[in-house]
UniProtKB/TrEMBL annotation:
Domain of life: Bacteria
GO biological process, one term: cell wall organization
Organism name: Caldalkalibacillus thermarum (strain TA2.A1)
Family membership noted in the UniProt record: Belongs to the SleB family.
Signal sequence residues: 1-30
GO molecular function: hydrolase activity
Protein name as it appears in the record: Spore cortex-lytic enzyme
């Protein structure tokens, strides 16, 4: 019996040590730099693009991990409560990607803003972009930019083809401002033009405010 207990305790101790070792290995893997100062390539370009969306990287995207990129990464890590190393590890990259968008997604949102709100004030254009971001956060809607924009009957510009026009500079600026946290719509999930809206359902939504020709609602 004593021999059995001794063997059991030995096995248990080994399992605990193995678990600690694997846990340390996973933690080390997560904190290991993917890209750091001195590196070059597509991953660096993607990091710069995403940092630029947040207003943390001001230079041209060149795919070179220089001192300015390192400073921008460190600032991002401070803002999001990550270990400040100035290098991009797996956790930093995942957090960065969770709070920013790809080039294609930026393009889709800019096209929507231009199709839906060109001619509106800049605030009104940012508000339209913010509605897309608010829908991404809501369980009522799909969780990708493409699915939100192309959801059936979601946006007039998609239905009538205006979405496919080339967006101007203000449309891109509006998207970037929304990504950086400006939400003139105050959390709206919907908007409509009261002069042309015929849907009784959209009129039933709780209204938040009016910006230019759009009423924004929950």
């Amino acid at each position: 019996m004593n021999l059995y207990k001794a063997l059991l305790m030995t096995a248990l101790g080994f399992a605990i040590m193995l678990g600690m070792t694997l846990g340390d290995a996973h933690q080390a893997e997560a904190s290991e730099a993917i890209v750091q100062q001195g590196d070059r390539g597509g991953v660096v370009w993607d990091v710069q693009h995403r940092l630029q969306q947040l207003g943390l990287y001001q230079l041209s995207m060149d795919g070179v991990y220089g001192s300015q990129t390192r400073q921008a990464v460190a600032q991002f890590q401070r803002q999001y409560g990550l270990p400040v190393t100035g290098s991009v590890d797996l956790k930093t990259l995942r957090t960065l990607r969770a709070n920013t968008f790809t080039v294609d997604e930026i393009e889709m949102m800019a096209k929507l803003v231009y199709g839906e709100a060109r001619g509106e004030s800049f605030e009104g254009q940012v508000a339209v972009a913010a509605v897309v971001l608010n829908r991404l956060k809501s369980p009522k809607f799909p969780n990708t930019v493409k699915e939100v924009i192309f959801e059936p009957r979601a946006f007039t510009a998609v239905a009538d083809g205006q979405y496919y026009q080339r967006p101007n500079r203000d449309a891109y600026r509006a998207v970037y401002h929304a990504i950086r946290g400006w939400d003139p719509s105050e959390g709206a999930l919907y908007y409509f033009n009261p002069d042309v809206a015929t849907s009784g359902w959209i009129w039933s939504r709780p209204q938040i405010k009016r910006i230019d020709n759009h009423i924004f609602a929950r």
